[in-house]
Specification:
The chain is 80% helix and 0% strand. The longest helix has 60 residues. It contains nine helices and no strands. By secondary structure, the protein is an all-alpha fold.
C-alpha cells in the first residue's frame, strides 16, 4: 500500500514538473517576434504539429476559454499578413493555422475532444512507462530515461502529437468515404435522370406519331373496304342475255 502511495506521489511530481516546463515554454514563446512566431508555426512537420491547437496557441489545456481568446487575439495580430507584408504569404499560412486552432477550441464539443486526447496521451504514457519500469527492474535497473522530467514531458508530447494525427487521419478517411458515397449517389441520380429523360422523350415521340399511325390505319381500312366493295359489285353483276339460236 505504501509502495503504491509512493508511486502515485512520484507520478504527481513528474506531471507537475511537466506542466511547469510547459508554462516556461509558454512564457518563452510569448515574447517571440512576429518572424519567430511565423517560423515556429511553419517549421518542418508543422502540418503534423499544428493539429494540436494547444501547441499552436502555446497554452495550457486547462486555461479558461476567455484567456485562450486573449492569447489567440495577440498571436493572430502578431502573425497577421498586414503586419508582415515583407513575408505576407508565409504570414497568411501562420495566420490560418492560428485561426483554425481557435475555431477548434472555441467550440465546446471539439475542445472537449482535444482535452480527451491530452488526457489519453498522459494516461497511455504512464501505463507504457509503468511497463517499462517493470522490465527495467527485472534487468536490475533502478531508473528509466523517462524518470527525467524533461524526457517524461517529451514522451507525453510525442504521444499527444500521434493521437492528434490519428484523429485527423480518421477524420479524413470518414470525409473521403462520405465523398465517395455522395459521388456514388450522385452518379445513380444522374443515371436515373437520364433514364427518365429518355423515357419522356420516347413517350413524346410516341404521342406525336400517334395521329400518323391513326391516319395510316384509317386509310388502310378505307382502302380495304373500297377493295371489298368493288369485288362484291363485280361478283353479283347479272350475266348478259344471249339471243336464242334456232
Amino acid at each position: 500500500m505504501e509502495a503504491n502511495s509512493s508511486k502515485s506521489k512520484d507520478e504527481e511530481i513528474r506531471f507537475e514538473s511537466f506542466y511547469t516546463e510547459v508554462k516556461e515554454i509558454e512564457k518563452r514563446d510569448s515574447v517571440l517576434t512576429s518572424k519567430q512566431q511565423i517560423d515556429r508555426l511553419l517549421r518542418p512537420g508543422s502540418t503534423y504539429l499544428n493539429l494540436n491547437p494547444f501547441e499552436v496557441l502555446q497554452i495550457d489545456p486547462e486555461l479558461p476559454i476567455d484567456e485562450v481568446k486573449k492569447k489567440y487575439r495577440r498571436l493572430s495580430i502578431l502573425v497577421h499578413p498586414d503586419k508582415n507584408q515583407d513575408d505576407a504569404e508565409r504570414a497568411q499560412q501562420a495566420f490560418e493555422a492560428v485561426n483554425k486552432a481557435w475555431k477548434v477550441l472555441e467550440n465546446e464539443v471539439t475542445r472537449k475532444k482535444c482535452m480527451e486526447v491530452i488526457e489519453e496521451a498522459k494516461g497511455r504514457t504512464d501505463i507504457m512507462l509503468a511497463e517499462k519500469r517493470k522490465k527495467a527492474k527485472k534487468e536490475g535497473k533502478d531508473r528509466i530515461p523517462e524518470d527525467d522530467p524533461e524526457k517524461y514531458r517529451h514522451a507525453i508530447y510525442v504521444l499527444t502529437m500521434k493521437l492528434f494525427a490519428d484523429m485527423e487521419r480518421k477524420r479524413r478517411d470518414l470525409a473521403e468515404r462520405d465523398q465517395e458515397e455522395r459521388k456514388r449517389k450522385r452518379e445513380a441520380e444522374i443515371e436515373e435522370e437520364e433514364l427518365n429523360k429518355a423515357q419522356k422523350e420516347w413517350q413524346k415521340n410516341f404521342e406525336e406519331s400517334r395521329q400518323n399511325r391513326v391516319d395510316s390505319w384509317q386509310s388502310f381500312q378505307a382502302n380495304t373496304k373500297k377493295s371489298k366493295s368493288s369485288k362484291k359489285i363485280k361478283m353479283f353483276r347479272p350475266p348478259q342475255n344471249k339471243p336464242e339460236s334456232r
